[in-house]
Amino acid sequence: MIPQSFIQDLLNRVDIVDVVGKYVQLKKGGANFMGLCPFHNEKSPSFTVSPTKQFYHCFGCGAHGSAIGFLMEYSGQSYPDAVRELAQSVGMTVPEERDRLPPAQRAEQQARSLALTDAMTRATEFYRRQLRGAQQAIQYLKGRGLTGEIAAQFGLGYAPDDWQGLEAVFGSYRDDALAGPLVEAGLLIENAERRDADGKPRRYDRFRDRIMFPIRNTKGQVIGFGGRVLGQGEPKYLNSPETPLFSKGTELYGLFEARHAIRETGYVLVVEGYMDVVALAQLGFANAVATLGTACTAVHVQKLLRQTDAVVFSFDGDSAGRRAARRALEACLPHVADNKTIRFLFLPSEHDPDSYVREEGTEAFAAQVRDAMPLSRFLLQVVTEEQDLRQPEGRARAQYEARPLLQAMPAGGLRLQIVRELAEATGTTPAEIEAVCGLRSDPARAGRFAQPRPRAKRQAPTGLEQRLLQLLMGYPHFAARLDEDSRALLLDAEQPQAEVLAHLLEACGEVQGEVNFAAFSEQLAQSPYAEIYANVRTAVLREEIEEEPAGLEFDAAVTKLLAEPLRRELDGLETAVTNGVADEAAKARMRWLVGEINRRRRLG
C-alpha cells in the first residue's frame, strides 16, 4: 500500500507538462498547453494540459487525470507501476509495507536492474545491425510479406550463426564482470560442466542463426527476445528464459507497439505467435498482440483490459486450439464485467491469422472478428458440447462442469444471464443452478442474486451546492474561511449536499502545506464519493478562475446556502404562531430570522 502522503508529495514534485510532453506534442495556448489527444482520433486539438492544476483533460473524449493517470492510460501500467516510474524520474523511492530492504541492498538491486536493461538495449542494436547484412534472413522476411518499415517498427534483428557473436559488443565472455549481466539477462548460456583451461565455465550465445523479435514492456524497454529459426530446426521459436526483467506469464508480445491501434479500433486481438503479430500489423491489423509461448494468464487478461474494454482471442480450430481457448476462458472469468466484451475466434484448422488475411482478404478477416463467439456462448458450449442433454446424467454433468467456471465469475448481469441460459439448457430454474453451483453458499458472493443491500441515499449536489464543491476542490484552503456555526448549518442533515460536503471539508482540513489540484484530486478519487468528485473535477477543469474572485464567490455561495436552514426554522416558527403555540421568545426569534434572511439575500 502506497501512502497517500507520498502520492501528494510526488505529484507536487513532478511536472505533468514534462510527463505528457514525452508522448504528445504540446503547444502553449494561453495558460495551458494544447495537443492532439492520444486517446482518440482528432484533427484539431482538444487535449489540454494545465501546469497550474497539474491535470490533463480532453474536451473531445473526456479523458482526464493526473500524471499518474496519464501513464496508466497511455502505457497500460498498473497504479503502483506508474507511481514507481514517476518517482524514479524525480529521484524518489516509493515507500511500501513490503519494502524492508536496507538502503544499500535496494541500491544494489537498482544498479543490477539498470545493468540488465542496458545489456538488452545494446543486444537489440547489435541484432538490428546484423540483419542489414544477413541476406538469408532478409529474404525470409520478404517471403513472409514484411517490409523494411514494419521490421524497423518492431525492431526485428538477426542473431548470426556464431557461438560468441555478442563478444563484438560486450567484450570477452571470460570476464565475469562483463558476462555476468549477459547470463542473467538470458543472452548467454553458461555451461559449468565444460570449462576453459583456466577453469572458467564456457559461455556462448543463446540465440544463433535466428530472426530476433525484441519483447518490450509497457515503457518500451526491451526485456526479452523471441528467436525464430530460419530453416529446419527445433525449437522453431526460442524465448528468453525467466529473468529479473522478463516473465512469460505477465508479458505480451507487441503490446507496446499496438497500444495506439488498440485505442483507435476499440479492441485488442490476441494471437498465438510473434510472426502473426508483425504480419497482421503489415496487413492493417496493428492491434494484435501474442502470448509468449505460454497459456494466457489472469495477469495477461488484466493488462489487456487496462488497454481496452474489448478483447478477441484468435485460436486455431483444431483440438490444440480449443484447449488453449479453454485455458484463456478460465483466465478471463475472474475479470469479466458487464461493461467488458471478451470473444473467441476460431479459424479453419489450415489457417493462422496471417495466412487467412492473405488468402481471404482483410474484409473477410474483419468479418470473422466481428462474428467471434462471445464468452458466454463459449462457456456454455464448453460445459454442454460433450453431454447428452436428453438424459439426466448429461444435464447433471453439464451443471457439474459449469460449477467452477461460474464460481470464478464475479456476481453480475453476465453471470446471471449465463445462469439463466444454463438453466434452460438443463431443464432447471436459475435458483436451482445457483444452489447446485454453490453461488449462494456465501451471502457475500450471492450479491445481486440475494436481497439487495441497502444503499445510503447520496443525492448529487446541484446549483449552489455544486459550485461550493467546485470552489473547495480548486482551493482547499477556503475551508478555513468557515467558522463553527457556519459549518454546523452547512452540514445540517437535511441539506442535500451535507454528506459529500462534510467529507470534502474534512479532506480540505487534512491538507498539509501547499498541495496542487492533481494531488488533491487523486486523494478524493479514492473516496466513496469518487463519482460525484469526478463530475465536480470536470467542471473545475473547464474554467480558469483566480483565487481572489473565487474567494468572493465562495463567501457569497456560503451566505446563500446558510439562508436555507434559517428559512426552514422560520417556516416552523410561522406555523407555531399560526397555531397559537408560540411564546414571546419564539416570536422575537422569528423577527430576527426574517431580518437575517433578508440580509443574507442582499449579500448574495
From TrEMBL:
Give the EC class as a word: transferase
UniProt cofactor(s): Zn(2+)
Q: Which Pfam families match?
A: DnaB_bind (PF10410), DnaG_DnaB_bind (PF08278), DNAG_N (PF08275), Toprim_2 (PF13155), Zn_ribbon_DnaG (PF01807)
Q: Give the ZnF (CHC2-type) ranges.
A: 37-61
Cite the EC number. 2.7.7.101
Residues forming the Toprim domain are 266-348
Q: Which domain of life is it from?
A: Bacteria
| Reactions it catalyzes | ssDNA + n NTP = ssDNA/pppN(pN)n-1 hybrid + (n-1) diphosphate
**Residue ranges the record marks as coiled coil:** none
SMART domains from the UniProt entry = DnaG_DnaB_bind, TOPRIM, ZnF_CHCC
Bound cofactor: record note: Binds 1 zinc ion per monomer.
Query: What keywords would UniProt list here?
Result: DNA replication, DNA-binding, DNA-directed RNA polymerase, Magnesium, Metal-binding, Nucleotidyltransferase, Primosome, Transcription, Transferase, Zinc, Zinc-finger
Name the family.
Belongs to the DnaG primase family.
What is annotated about its quaternary structure and interactions? Monomer. Interacts with DnaB.
Record note on domains: Contains an N-terminal zinc-binding domain, a central core domain that contains the primase activity, and a C-terminal DnaB-binding domain.
Q: So what does this one do?
A: RNA polymerase that catalyzes the synthesis of short RNA molecules used as primers for DNA polymerase during DNA replication.
Name by which UniProt lists this protein: DNA primase
